[in-house]
Amino acid sequence: MREQLSVLEKRGNTNCFSEANFNHLLVTMKDRTYPEGTHLYWEGDVSDKLYYMKRGRAQITKSTDEGKELIMYMYQSGDMIGQADPFFGSKHSFSAEVLEDSEIGVLEHKDLEMLICQHCDFAIDFMKWMGIHHRLTQTKFRDLMLYGKPGALCSTLIRLSNSYGEPHGEHVMIHKKITHTDLSNMIGATRESVNRMLSDLRKKDAIEYDNGMIVIKDLHMLQGICHCELCPNEICRI
């Protein structure tokens, strides 16, 4: 079991924790199971817990005034989810939906505070995790605001390839079926505009489809469109 969790640690956003501090997290959290379609929390709920994905997937969404959902993040095994400012009685700015039957460790903020008080090196690792979370949010909003919908789409494809990419000959296949509706919700665009942009990228031979999966053929072209800053993979992820 410990070997399995070590692998998950390297895959997820908890890689910033040392093995000892990661073990502190594991023994403190309480295991829960969440069926597909349930929510860990809703936008507006009090932020008093963190969630560690031991098995499964979840997505973080933001609702607009028009009722449209924007997919902000997608998390998988090895990731820790939750508000990054846990000590001010804040409320969640997003909702967290479970995408498949999942096993999740729940960490109460009062227990987190105890860990930080007892282990100063844990506090440093937790600050690193908060920093990664903050940088990820910054780069996401940069993608959505600075370089138009084509830039946001290309950045999203790059992030998907970093999160789910597998070698496919000389190219990279995003080994997860992503619908055009999913992509539109990730960048705040209409499905029709996503269809047009993907068609343009296919004509330019930047991407192709293989059995419903997106294949990245020209990564440099996508990087140029979104003015890629070559962030490390723990930041450049979906």
Automatic annotation (TrEMBL):
Keywords: Activator, DNA-binding, Transcription, Transcription regulation. Residues 147-220 form the HTH crp-type domain. Signal peptide: none annotated. Coiled coil: none annotated. Pfam families: cNMP_binding (PF00027), HTH_Crp_2 (PF13545). SMART domains: cNMP, HTH_CRP. PROSITE patterns: CNMP_BINDING_3 (PS50042), HTH_CRP_2 (PS51063). It comes from the Bacteria. Residues 25-116 form the Cyclic nucleotide-binding domain. GO terms for molecular function: DNA binding; DNA-binding transcription factor activity. GO terms for cellular component: cytosol. This is Crp/Fnr family transcriptional regulator. It comes from Paenibacillus taichungensis.
